[in-house]
Amino acid sequence: MGREADEIIIQRLRAALLIIAAGTIFSSVLYPGGYNFLKEPLSALGGIKTFDGLRDNSASRITFSITCITAGIVLVSAMPAAHKKSILLMGTGLLLLPFPHDLFRLAHQIASGLAVAGAYFYCTAYLHHSRREHFTQALFQLIILTYAALHITGSGFREEFQTLALGSIILVLTGSVMPSFRGKKISPTHGEEV
Q: Whole-angstrom Cα distance, residue 167 to residue 117?
């Protein structure tokens, strides 16, 4: 994969991140009763009902679905030029994520797993190739793997920890598509300046 493919990945990932940020903010504004990023899972924005199960969530759900599908299309459309499996996983997961968690639980969990796994693999490769210090890589791994363990075990802390885990992923993804502090862009696949 060459520099042209890396640039396509960076452009598509940047666009997808902007779509997800705007859509998440808009969905949270439309969420009945106010959405709490620290207490409710992100999936609540796309639920049939609010997380407490008491109110209809149509406006937020529609916005969440449009956001996920649009960001998924942007990522998957990078594939002809950039055969990066992590981007394909992330995009496929986003395309399937609109299955509401409170109606199609298994489908939603699979979609979430694909999107988060794709983001995790991309972030891990980026941190490795960009030669970030070992502490950053270790901290990222600790946060994500702890969240995965809490989620698998059904811990009551998983919603609260999701904010930290998704924040870590977003921080690394954003760092991978923005110029570094030295004014350079690091190739997500080669660790060299683009």
A: 15
* Burial of 132: CB neighbours in 10 Å, binned 0-12, 13-18, 19+: middle
| The model's pTM | 0.82
Residues 162 and 177: their CA atoms lie apart, in Å, by 23
CB 20 within 8 Å of CB 67: yes
Query: Cα dist. 82→7, 74, 88, 146 in Å?
Result: 9, 12, 10, 31
* Res 118 pLDDT > 70: yes
Using an 8 Å Cβ cutoff, are 43 and 112 in contact? yes
Structure tokens at 142: 């600790």
